[in-house]
Amino acid sequence: MTMNTQGRPTAPTSTSVSDIETVSGSRGLLQAEGLIFEIGTSETTGVDLPAPKNRTGRLGGVARKVPTGLPGLSEPEMVRHYMRLSQRNYAIDLGFFPLGSCTMKHNPRLNEKMARLPGFGDIHPMQPQATVQGALELIDELATWLKTLTNMPFVAMSPKAGAHGELAGMLAIRQALIARGEGETRKRVLVPASAHGTNPATAVQCGFEVDEIKANARGRVDMDMLRAKLERTDDVAGIMLTNPNTCGLFETDIKEIADLIHAAGGYFYCDGANFNAIVGRVRPGDLGVDAMHINLHKTFSTPHGGGGPGSGPTVLSQALAPYAPVPFVVKNEDGVYSLVEDMDGEASESFGRMVAFHGQMGMFVRALAYILSHGADGLKQVAEDAVLNANYIAAKLKHVMTPAFEGYCMHEALFSDAFTADGIETLDIAKALIDEGYHPMTMYFPLVVHGAMLIEPTETESKATLDQFCASLESIARRAAQGDETLKGAPYLAPARRLDETRAARKPVLKWTAPEGETVAAE
């Protein structure tokens, strides 16, 4: 008997929690909370300031002539409002996040402390280079680690996120083709169906044409189709391939793919968003990769949930290194670090500048702190544990759910909805997980799997945590297989019930409208 089950029940056990209604709208100690416009009034304010004396306005004819209509709250009301909103957020500090390192995994507090150190957290990108030697040295040291882990000779540190890193790699490829005099003839980029969706978008943005390659029954590149598409080689610019791919599988033919692309005169871009599955185990440079971005905010902590911060350094092969973007850090013979910012000298063949300054300094500090605290052997274990955890989930659930592909996976366990009864969908399973206290896994992606459920536990979760999650998902999966119609109404225990998602997508309410008679904000 646990502490939570000792003693006498304080309420009839036959009462359904979902049937209980409260006058306040709160559910236990989870407080109900309306919009700030609904709980505040435009006639009051939390702070009263006297009108300024002996000053005239300088706005002239554009000064506001009507009240703003913004809500006023007292200080306690304001604090409570945002505290209650924060309790609606699911966070990695609250529980297991099946979406994994794409969005949420454990972020060591040590990294945050390092990023806030004076000299890192308070520097300005326009300071003289002589005053930021430590920061430039840190960027250079991080670059050395990234080059060593990938066995690539150069890394562009300025890209701000994964897709930005893709753009850097593909612009370097385009510049290399221009330098060869083939910029106008080699326009075709091969993109597997199992690649990240940003890959074809980036190729098009760089002026290339996308030629899709289907996946085979193993969830990997269909080599017969690839060879067929390479029968004509004079227009091939390269390939954009995600490895491990979006199905959570390692492309076992990757070396042959690289050889075929190079023989056709093209370049090999590898999407490195899933590098956390192979870091310390596989060096992409050994596989024939010419360019690959690395999501620092995924492989080396500080996931980009909430929109930032991100960082996507792009490693380049010897063939593409001359075309890397500026700026980049160099160490001079006298030991002084400097930034190469102009397109002359060693940067004369660069495709140009991508950002105003030098990259995402906060992420550089966090990533290097993560790398140094793990060491080479620890980074290798990161990949091993990520793969182990994903395969553990796959093994625990394969008897009640349908694995999308046979065999072992890498860092993600992928299931289809084939096990569900008619009328039960992936969405119903995901919503039921909310009642169990978990944020849903990635749904309906990748598109090559019907009703896909993609689960990435990351390397940071314990066996006990995974067992608890699997027990919850197994229970839901059994109900789905039996056609339990109650799943269609889940979640029952969340502060808000299920929305009409089709209507919400097509007719979203994006603006609060005051009831008739109330003052509204000036437009």
From TrEMBL:
Family matches, as InterPro entries: Aminotrans_V_dom, GDC-P_C, GDC_P, PyrdxlP-dep_Trfase, PyrdxlP-dep_Trfase_major, PyrdxlP-dep_Trfase_small
Example GO BP: glycine decarboxylation via glycine cleavage system
Pfam families the UniProt entry points to: Aminotran_5, GcvP2_C
Domain Glycine dehydrogenase C-terminal: 384-481
Catalytic function, reaction form: N(6)-[(R)-lipoyl]-L-lysyl-[glycine-cleavage complex H protein] + glycine + H(+) = N(6)-[(R)-S(8)-aminomethyldihydrolipoyl]-L-lysyl-[glycine-cleavage complex H protein] + CO2
Origin superkingdom: Bacteria
Molecular-function GO term, any one: pyridoxal phosphate binding
E.C. numbers: 1.4.4.2
SUPFAM superfamilies in the cross-refs: PLP-dependent transferases
EC top class, as a word: oxidoreductase
GO CC terms in record: cytosol; glycine cleavage complex
Annotated ranges, domain Aminotransferase class V: 194-305
Coiled coil: none
Annotated function: The glycine cleavage system catalyzes the degradation of glycine. The P protein binds the alpha-amino group of glycine through its pyridoxal phosphate cofactor; CO(2) is released and the remaining methylamine moiety is then transferred to the lipoamide cofactor of the H protein.
Protein name: glycine dehydrogenase (aminomethyl-transferring)
